[in-house]
Write a structure and sequence with these properties.
The protein has nine helices and two strands. Strands 1-2 form a two-stranded antiparallel sheet. The longest helix is centred in the middle third of the chain and has 28 residues. About 3% of the residues have low confidence.
Length: 208
């Protein structure tokens, strides 16, 4: 949890890290765009097939065990390829490689190791604050890390269901300040998001 806390604290500062990375030329950006979109296609391929595979073989079958082993091995390969790009060029924004390739970075990070998520989350936040990456994707990255660590989320992007199958939020850290945190990264207030999910939001928000 100390690592996650440090990650969040560092992420609150608008620090430009671009000087550490190579500035890609136009031709290089075209190549990187194609590379990221291809990695994204590989990242999604088996995930789009798993439901059909489960129906055919059964969730706990040997075939599905092998299926997920293949996915795990591929995820590691894709993660390694992405890290090479990030360590050289930093977090490539929408104006650099387009919305799809930019979103591909986030998607691959989502399926990467915790160490990789922690290492690059601050880069993503810096990109979000420059309006070069999507704030909801960043919120989901951070909140999922916290929920997976059995800690309260901070942006309110993660929902679950109660025993009556009603949609509810996973616990939110100091929920009276969630709008403040959301708006800091460019998200609208949580009330509208809650309404979309069918959740009745009644917690008054504080501005500071």
């Amino acid at each position: 949890m100390k690592k996650l806390l440090f990650l969040f604290i560092m992420g609150t500062f608008s620090i430009s890290l671009c000087g550490q990375y190579k500035q890609a030329s136009g031709k290089e950006l075209d190549t990187l765009k194609t590379k990221l979109e291809t990695l994204f296609m590989h990242d999604q391929l088996f995930r789009r097939l798993y439901q059909d595979a489960e129906k055919k073989f059964g969730q706990d079958s040997a075939e599905m065990e092998y299926f997920w082993k293949v996915v795990e091995d591929q995820d590691k390969r894709i993660e390694s390829e992405l890290i090479k790009i990030l360590d050289k060029y930093g977090w490539l924004g929408i104006s650099d490689v387009g919305r799809l390739a930019n979103g591909a970075i986030w998607s691959i990070i989502q399926h990467s190791s915790l160490k990789t998520k922690e290492k690059y989350a601050a880069l993503m936040k810096a990109s979000v604050l420059k309006k070069e990456s999507q704030p909801l994707q960043y919120a989901r990255l951070i909140d999922r890390m916290l929920v997976n660590a059995h800690k309260p989320q901070i942006y309110g992007s993660q929902t679950t269901k109660d025993k009556n199958e009603n949609v509810i939020f996973f616990e939110i850290e100091k929920p009276e300040y969630v709008d403040l945190r959301r708006r800091e990264i460019g998200l609208e207030g949580i009330e509208g998001f809650a309404k979309e999910k069918g959740i009745d939001w009644t917690i008054s928000q504080k501005k500071k």
